[in-house]
């Protein structure tokens, strides 16, 4: 901070996320900036992705100073107008904001893939969804045998429904709390260090099937239609892949939320489980996902009684 001219700044903590990263807002004579303290070793990936995004005209924050070895980055402060907050205060902006989000993805997906992002293909998606079998059955107090069939089903369905699509850049953790509304300026972007090469539907699902807030079904339908109109992709195959990627993401998220409680002592994420389960059920209603739907049908939903049982087993932080 001192070396970058912010030694006299006032330091205030900012809300964190489910990771070990911490954020602080610095305010001083030069305005404000954000200090990121990342002990996980993701700084290099964040810097690399930031430079790529800014080089292509997207709204990632400017890098003001860095000490990647120590896990510190000082970046431009994009402000407090997270899309989630703007929508909570002005819900009538929902259609316009989500249209802008969709247009952003259309433009992002037109860019050549950066060579440094890892693929998130069928085998990788199947491996990720293993988190559900690892954590949800034990949280629910049931055997894991049935849930173990989910990952192979995801891999097989991806090969049938999505493997033929050219991969695009996916920012991955792409939702209303990781986007900053700046009016006519480009959308502000945060938390994109885990970007991958994936099916074009992945980030659209992430934004429209948000674990933390409800998105009106009409907005979701309009955004899918808007994306298809702009890209010319085959609508039937895209919608099937959208449902599959939604199911994969929602199963993985439920596993993560169970782990955050049982292992990490963070029970607040359990409140989102019923919404995520509802997204999952809607995805599984797609006829192409019938093999996966049959497996999940044998598993209990996270109702109020189950969530209370999981909370009672929450790890002490």
From TrEMBL:
Pfam families assigned to the protein according to its UniProt record, in alphabetical order: APH
Domain named Aminoglycoside phosphotransferase: residues: 11-237
Entry superkingdom: Bacteria
The name this protein goes by in its record: Phosphotransferase
Protein's organism: Paracoccus spongiarum
């Amino acid at each position: 901070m001192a070396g970058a001219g912010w030694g006299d700044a006032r330091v205030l903590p900012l809300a964190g996320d489910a990771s070990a990263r911490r954020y602080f807002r610095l305010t001083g004579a030069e305005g404000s900036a954000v200090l990121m303290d990342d002990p996980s070793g993701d700084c290099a990936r964040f810097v690399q992705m930031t430079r790529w995004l800014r080089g292509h005209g997207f709204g990632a924050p400017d890098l003001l100073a860095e000490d990647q070895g120590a896990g510190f980055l000082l970046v431009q402060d994009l402000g407090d107008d997270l899309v989630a907050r703007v929508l909570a205060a002005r819900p009538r902006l929902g259609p316009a904001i989500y249209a802008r989000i969709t247009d952003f993805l259309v433009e992002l997906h037109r860019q050549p893939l950066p060579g440094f992002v890892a693929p998130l293909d069928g085998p990788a998606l199947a491996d990720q969804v293993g988190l559900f079998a690892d954590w949800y059955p034990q949280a629910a107090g049931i055997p894991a045998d049935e849930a173990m069939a989910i990952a192979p089903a995801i891999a097989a369905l991806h090969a049938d429904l999505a493997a033929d699509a050219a991969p695009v850049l996916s920012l991955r953790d792409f939702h209303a709390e990781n986007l900053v509304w700046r009016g006519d300026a480009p959308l502000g972007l945060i938390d994109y260090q885990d970007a991958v090469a994936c099916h074009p539907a992945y980030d659209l699902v992430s934004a429209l099937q948000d674990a933390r807030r409800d998105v009106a079904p009409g907005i979701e339908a309009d955004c899918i239609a808007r994306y298809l109109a702009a890209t010319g992709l085959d609508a039937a195959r895209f919608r099937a892949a959208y449902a599959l990627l939604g199911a994969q993401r929602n199963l993985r998220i439920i596993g993560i939320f169970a782990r955050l409680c049982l292992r990490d002592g963070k029970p607040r994420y359990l409140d989102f489980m019923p919404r995520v389960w509802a997204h999952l059920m809607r995805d599984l209603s797609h006829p192409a996902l019938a093999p996966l739907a049959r497996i999940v049908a044998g598993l209990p939903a996270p109702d109020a009684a189950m969530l209370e049982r999981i909370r009672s087993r929450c790890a002490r932080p």
